[in-house]
Write a structure and sequence with these properties.
The complex is a heterodimer of chains A (249) and B (765). Chain A has 249 residues and is mostly beta strands. Chain A has a single domain, classed as outer membrane lipoprotein receptor (LolB), chain A, CATH 2.50.20.10. Chain A is built from 3 helices and 13 strands; from the N terminus they run H-H-E-E-E-E-E-E-H-E-E-E-E-E-E-E. Chain A has a 13-stranded antiparallel β-sheet, with helices on one face. Chain B is α+β, with helices and mostly antiparallel strands and 765 residues long. Chain B contains 28 helices and 10 strands. In chain B, helix 9 packs antiparallel against helix 12 and helix 11 packs across helix 26. Chain B starts with a helix and ends with a helix. Classes of the chains: A mainly beta (249), B alpha+beta (765). At the A-B interface, strand 5 and strand 6 of A face strand 4 and helix 20 of B.
Chain lengths: 249, 765
């Protein structure tokens, strides 16, 4: 009996996934080259009061380039935002204020700042670089009938993240992120995220994201409508001059 | 019927004395089991009627903008600049430690505030204090920024730039005393040798009730010792004094226990023990003492005559059963009128003190006679064989009063007329700072916060309307300008200030643009720009989530109630004439609420006093089957009430919720003295005593217990040495109530009865 035990463990060890494997699998998943959508963003505060806005968004290169225009409420209509991520440099971010007829640059020095009053910070909206985290698996759990790995990602100190760790539930097999918990620097739970995805073309694309800041009792729900993928968005769309023009759908 | 009840009580005392004592003790123990249920609750807001407008506004503001009960902490060292890395490190640590506490909602200080800078056209929102440990250039940058923003500077830095203000906003619904302990502990652990001062109404209301209770407990002990000494000197019987004290103690247990039981069964805030209830033990003590003293002095007198305890107890009961019952029922009725008072906790006050009085009556009519009956009295003892000092004094005093009744009555009426004049000079005066004597720690902190910082009181204007409408925002700016011209107001803040600052920042820091933009679109763009790097929660204490309601907070120094009345009225007039674009504007703030509370207490006390006097007159009149007796019974206490308020007016003692409530002592004790006098008058008249000797006999019978009762309560003059002015008032009022009611009964009532005796006796026949 004893002579069979060691090979079984060896086989299990050789074929089992590590945290890094799961993170790599998520990172290497096929992504659309570009994406167009109309987003509805609903913010809800601790007293249950809500603010709602709709946004037209176009992204390219996995979100490294993004331009958004506010469609509603009426007060915000025309406000537009442009972001271009640059490796090793600060991201370039600009905001068009139609009432002032001015474009204003935005500093991204504080990654923990909330984006547009939502529960998502600039750090949440930036793609995670695989090598800037350490990974481990904390077991398995079934979510909505799907078996998931629980992936723990800890940012390396040089990243200067606003989080101490993320716990991500990733479906086994197709590596779809279903939910995530993010912990602040003192190790307390700060945010909970739930993501609903849908297969469009060959991509698993998020169609609804719910983020709750459990410390502030504030939540944000983003719903994606009219998703269009790989439509051939040109690079020159992501320019300051295009902020001032609301595109036709 | 009356006779049968009285006989039943006499039988219980003389035939089953031990059983009677045991049953009384057992019932008192039952009451005592209610004591653990007693809830001490010093939440100031629970005193206020929920329908009161300023309370409703206050509640709305708390709901929309968070807790408005703020604690202020000043940290620094006199004469040393606050731009000091050690001091800012301490304030950083304090803020950080407090923010981690779940009972604290928000900490506002230099280390938690944001700064807004224009950087290449971008409005950058960043931390005013960038780190715990600061370099000299960072300190200099902070100084430059604060000098450029005087509105922020005045809120967080003292006039001489030597103290930092840390503003702590607790979460709502946490008891203020709990919050205070957390804040004091956290701050003291992080001061690093710097001076600390605490302030703010929340801090005072959270600290004061406990300090007052401690102070009252110490001084009451002195009062009790003095009371025991006076009783001992006059009654000259240790067992006798013990018997009186046992009645007092057991009725106090019944009163407090009943409050606990009722709270347990109802769970209502009406039955918690608040700072208002602090006067209950003193009031009941005087009333219970009165019952015991009257019984015992009468008993000794009867013993002198009959030399037999059974007969003496019987005679005493025959004589005093009805008056003690009548004094109790009238006083209970008087306190029950508090049930309709707008201050909800006065309901519990009235009911529980009523139960205490009723139990004091029962004990005085059953247990006390039983104890007296069981005791083997020495007929040769001084208590029985000889008259006491007060007895001799009353004998001579009564003789003089009855010799010149017209003069005495005229003199009494003149004094009452002076009192009536004094009433016209009465002023409502509640200056919270003056609750504390100069030199006390709280008072010094209070004065420091007022003179060196921006003050710790506020006026709040809740503005409903479109908070992105430039016209309304400009009206808010004008209202703030108007408020800041008021002498007591140091600064004000609202969302309009933030919008002005954002406007300037987005326009390349040009001071010309520190204005409200000219369109709501621009205002909205500013909010959007802010949300790109600032936390939207930064505005939560100034504007609601939907931008439909805004809050203007004007910080101010302490002023008294009459000045706040004028100020609120002026603000109301300004708002009516100048703010046409708001859907509605309501003014609140702790001083406004305090003013309304005082008026509510004064109104309810005034109603209670008037209704009590009418009820007492009706009860006494119907019991003695003569409206004249009813009328006469309320003469001394009415005169005493007039004198009380009149002399307060003459001597400049302001009407406050404390002083006005304690006039209940006058009602409670005043009616006792009058009923005893009238009852004895009626009884002696019935016995066929000639009218020439009638008043003299009455004076001889009840004059001594009245004076002894009054004198023994004088011990509570010890309260005059309290650190707190309201407690001093209680002490002063106790002395005044005792003097005015006893002297009023033995002069005005005695003289009036002497003059009217023939008419009364004829009509009664």
């Amino acid at each position: 009996m004893k002579k069979y035990v060691i090979p079984i463990f060896l086989i299990q060890y050789l074929f089992s996934q590590t945290g890094y494997d799961v993170a790599t699998a998520i990172d290497s998943k096929a992504e659309p080259k570009d994406m167009k959508s109309d987003l509805t963003m609903v913010l809800t505060n601790s007293k249950g009061k809500t603010r709602s806005s709709t946004i037209r968004s176009i992204t390219k290169d996995g979100g490294e380039k993004q331009i958004i225009w506010f469609l509603s409420p009426a007060d915000d209509k025309g406000v537009a935002f442009l972001k271009i991520e640059r490796d090793g440099k600060d991201d370039e971010m600009r905001l068009w204020l139609p009432a002032f007829k001015k474009v204003r640059r935005i500093k991204s020095s504080n990654k923990g700042d909330a984006f547009m009053g939502s529960d998502m910070s600039y750090e949440d909206m930036t793609n995670r670089n695989l090598d800037e985290f350490t990974y481990e698996l904390a077991g398995k759990e079934t979510i909505n009938g799907k078996e998931c790995h629980i992936l723990i990602s800890k940012p390396k100190p040089e990243l200067r993240s606003t989080y101490s760790q993320h716990r991500t539930w990733v479906t086994i097999g197709d590596n779809i992120v279903l939910k995530e918990e993010s912990y602040d620097r003192s190790g307390k739970l700060l945010k909970k995220k739930e993501i609903k995805s849908q297969k469009i073309k060959e991509y698993n694309t998020p169609v609804e994201i719910y983020v709750e800041n459990v410390q502030k009792h504030h939540s944000t729900k983003l719903t994606f409508d009219g998703l269009e993928l790989d439509t051939g968005v040109e690079d020159d769309l992501f320019q300051e001059k295009n902020l001032k023009r609301l595109p036709r759908k | 019927m009356k006779h049968a009840v009285r006989q039943w009580f006499i039988r219980q005392a003389t035939e089953y004395p031990k059983r009677t004592i045991i049953i009384n003790i057992l019932v008192t123990v039952l009451f005592a089991f209610g004591l653990p249920n007693l809830i001490i609750d010093d939440d100031f807001m629970k005193l206020l009627p929920p329908e009161m407008e300023s309370r409703q506004t206050w509640d709305n503001i708390r709901e929309e903008f968070g807790n408005t009960e703020i604690v202020y902490v000043a940290l620094g060292k006199k004469g040393e600049s606050i731009y000091n890395a050690d001091l800012l490190r301490s304030s950083w640590d304090i803020a950080e430690a407090l923010e981690l506490d779940p009972n604290i909602d928000e900490v506002m200080s230099l280390s938690t505030m944001n700064r807004m800078d224009s950087d290449d056209g971008f409005m950058e929102v960043s931390d005013l204090q960038p780190a715990r440990d600061l370099y000299p250039d960072e300190l200099e940058e902070m100084k430059t920024y604060l000098d450029k923003n005087p509105d922020m500077k005045i809120r967080f830095i003292s006039k001489n730039e030597d103290y930092i203000n840390i503003i702590v906003r607790p979460v709502t619904d946490v008891p203020q005393d709990v919050v205070n302990k957390i804040i004091v502990k956290t701050v003291n652990e992080n001061t690093n040798g710097f001076d600390v001062k605490f302030g703010g109404h929340a801090y005072i209301t959270g600290t004061m009730p406990e300090l007052i209770r401690e102070d009252v407990m110490v001084l009451m002990r002195y009062g009790l010792v003095i009371m025991i000494i006076i009783l001992l000197i006059n009654l000259r019987s240790v067992p006798g004094v013990f018997m009186v004290l046992s009645v007092i103690f057991m009725s106090l247990v019944a009163m407090m226990g009943s409050l606990g039981w009722i709270y347990r069964f109802t769970g209502s805030d009406k039955f918690v023990f608040s700072v208002l209830n602090s006067s209950m033990p003193i009031i009941l003590l005087t009333i219970a003492n009165s019952d015991g003293v009257h019984f015992l002095t009468k008993f000794f007198k009867e013993m002198r005559k009959h030399k037999n305890a059974h007969d003496a107890v019987k005679k005493t009961m025959d004589s005093l059963f009805i008056p003690i019952f009548l004094t109790s029922i009238t006083t209970v009725a008087a306190f029950m009128t508090l049930i309709s008072a707008p201050i909800v906790q006065l309901t519990g006050y009235g009911i529980s003190i009523g139960i205490g009085i009723a139990w004091a009556w029962f004990l005085s009519s059953s247990m006390l006679p039983a104890m007296v009956y069981l005791k083997k009295w020495n007929m040769e003892s001084k208590a029985i064989a000889h008259m006491s000092i007060f007895e001799k004094f009353v004998d001579k005093f009564g003789f003089q009063v009855l010799r010149f009744p017209k003069r005495i009555l005229a003199l009494g009426l003149i004094i009452v007329a002076i009192g009536l004049y004094g009433m016209t000079l009465l002023k409502v005066d509640v200056n919270i700072a003056s609750f504390f004597k100069p030199g006390t720690e709280i008072r010094d902190s209070f004065d420091f916060m007022d003179s060196e910082m921006a003050g710790t009181f506020d006026i709040l204007a809740r503005v409903e309307g479109d908070m992105k409408d430039p016209v309304l925002l400009n009206e808010m700016v004008n209202l703030q300008d108007y408020l800041e011209k008021v002498e007591y107001v140091t600064t004000s803040i609202s969302i309009a200030d933030v919008i002005k600052q954002m406007h300037r920042t987005v326009m390349d820091d040009d001071p010309l643009f520190e204005t409200i933009p000219d369109s709501s679109g621009k205002v909205n763009n500013l909010f959007t720009l802010y949300s790109m790097s600032g936390d939207p929660d930064d505005f939560s204490s100034m504007v609601d989530y939907e931008y439909e309601t805004g809050l203007i907070t004007a910080l101010m120094r302490n002023i008294n109630a009459s000045e706040i009345v004028v100020l609120v009225k002026d603000i109301g007039n300004y708002v009516e004439q100048n703010m046409r674009h708001a859907d509605s504007i309501t003014i609140s703030g702790i001083l406004v609420i305090f003013r309304d509370l005082i008026y509510a207490v004064i109104k309810s006390s005034a109603i209670s006093i008037i209704v009590s006097i009418i009820i007492i007159a009706l009860i006494v009149g119907s019991f003695f089957k003569s409206w004249k007796y009813g009328l006469l019974s309320v003469i001394p206490l009415t005169a005493a009430v007039i004198l009380n308020f009149g002399f307060m007016g003459l001597f400049g003692v302001g009407l406050s919720h404390v002083t006005v409530l304690l006039s209940s002592i006058i009602i409670g004790v005043g009616v006792d003295f009058a009923v005893h006098y009238i009852s004895q008058f009626r009884q002696i008249a019935r016995n066929g005593t000639p009218s020439t000797e009638l008043s003299h006999d009455v004076m001889e019978d009840v004059g001594y217990p009245i004076i002894l009762d009054a004198a023994s309560n004088m011990g509570f003059a010890a309260l005059l040495f309290s650190l707190f002015l309201p407690i001093q008032y209680i002490g002063g009022l106790m002395v005044f109530a005792m003097v005015s009611t006893s002297v009023g009964t033995l002069t005005i009532l005695a003289a009036a009865l002497e003059l009217a005796k023939n008419r009364i006796l004829i009509s009664n026949k």
